[in-house]
Structure formats: structure tokens, C-alpha cells
Target: FecR family protein
Amino acid sequence: MDKDKQFKEFFEGRMSEPEATVFCAWLNTEEGAAYLDSRIDRAWNSKRGNSNYPAWDSQTILQKINAEKAGYEQQKPDNKQAKEVNFSPRNHFPSWLSVAAIVALVVLIPFVFFKANNSGSTQQREPQPKIITRSNPSGVKSKFHLPDGSLVSLNSESSIVYQEDFAVNRNIELIGEAYITVAKDSLHPFVIKSSGLNTEALGTIFNIKAYANENSVEVLLVEGKVKVDNIDSNEALILVPGEKAVLSNERGDFEKKNGDITRETQWTQGVLEFKNQGFQEIFKYLERWYGVKIEVTGNMTKAKGLGKFQEGESLDNVLEVLSYSNYFNYKINKDTVFVDFNKD
Model:
């Protein structure tokens, strides 16, 4: 979904509580922080040039103060010296104040939003179910059971949000990637919302990849049967094992493709594999996998990487193998990797 649209819905209070929680989690990512910076820059630039304040008529103001203080009749000011003050708060709103407003609202809106949703008489409303968030930073993966017995493998830089009554309300919000084995329950459909797609299943196994900073959202079916709905276009795709639904974040295309179950789900076994993928994509994956920041110099536009690495492979070994065929130098300094494609 378009981030400007989500931003607007968030500030207008038109998001559900789980949606708002996921959006806040995204704002806390590196991409979310960059997006927020751009919003602040836009707010700042839109106010530049409007910060010229009118002339300050100090003589007239001083006469008014003296008149009040001494109790004497105010003398009429000299019209030649007095200057008319036409101050319009709206036209002269300080640019820094609008920027501060965005920052303050980003900090305060979750509290206001959830307070508004949960306010009111306890006699008129039942207590809202508690919202539960499970998340992993970069470099960390986890595996756990949901309250209904479903098993989730959650990848790095990923999070899921669900309600405390999940056993009877099996709805999840996902950012990132998760491999899910759904517990069978014909009375309670299992629905995952992820970046513009709703995936519904009764009892099945599938992988969803929905990172906010990638070009597409993918739902790969491993076992069973699922229906995938495009929220914006109301299109729906029914998948059988080996097929995947792909939503392009750039073009908005929504289509069914053949997937590679083994290769696309082996991350759950700790296996890394690249098949002639561009290094921009590879480095993004390695940043997420190892919890590092990779800084690149030189031209890597046409460079492709190839390699397969088993669980526990060190980042140093991975980069060493990838550098053989693509001639780049690298240096690891704590949590930062410097890569230079200008290798002689």
C-alpha cells in the first residue's frame, strides 16, 4: 500500500488498532525513519519563505503600556511614524513549528489513537482484547506457536501482531517474512494481512514475504490451499502447492507464478542461497540476515552473485566466496561492512 496513503489514514484515525501497531513498527525500521525524515523535509520546505514577520511598531506599543501604567489618557500616535501591523498567524506560521508538529504527532498519536479507541463507559463497552506483538531485529530469527497451535518461523527484521483472543479470532498483521504451519480449524479461518494482501487458509503451510523496502509481496503455498486477496483491487487468486501470488509494489500488478518451494523456504533451516541475483538485493539480504550495515563504493550495477551457504556460515566466509567471481574487496568493522567494487 502507498505509504503516503497509510500515513494519512494513520493520522486521521482510520486505521484499525492492529494496523496502527504494525505501521508504528514500520516507522521504527530504517526505511520508516527515512520516510519520516522526508515528511519532515517536505513540511519544512513548504513553510520556507513564509517566515517574514511584519514591522514591529514599538512606539505605539510603548505608549499603550505607559497609558495603562500611569492611568493617563493615551496620546494619539503620530501617523507618520506609526506603522500598520497586519499579522496573520496562518500566513506567518514559523516553519520549525510545523516540523515539530509532525515529530510530536508521530510520538503522541499512538497513545491518542489507542486511548480514543478504548475510551468510554465500561458499562457501554466490553474490554478490548490485548494486542500482542512478536518481532525480530536484523540478525535474529525465531520459531514459536500461536495460541491456536499454529507454528510460526519468523525471519529477521520481521514482526507479527495479533489479538489475545487469537484462538477464536485468527487474524494477523505481518511485516517481513514468515513461514507458517496453520493449525486446522474449520470454524475459524486463518487470515494474514501483509502490505496490501489478505491471505486466508483453514489448514495449510505457506510462506509470506512482505518486507516494506522490497519491490513485491509474495505468498508461496507449500501445502494445502489458500485464497489471496488484493485489498486495493479486490482481485483474488486461489493457489495450489508450488504456486505463489505476487503483488508488485511499484506497478501494482497482481499475478500468479510458479515458485521454488525448496529454495524459497530453506531460510527456515538456516540456509542462504543466491542464484545470479544482483548485489543490491544480496547485500540487503545479508544486512537482514547478519544484522550489519553494508556500505558500497564503486559500480555494482551489473554484478551478479552465486552461492549456497549452510547454517552457521560466517559473514566473512560468505563475502569471501561471493568476492571470488565478482572481484570486490571488503572489510568488516564490527557491525559495518565496507565493500569496494573497484578491485584491481
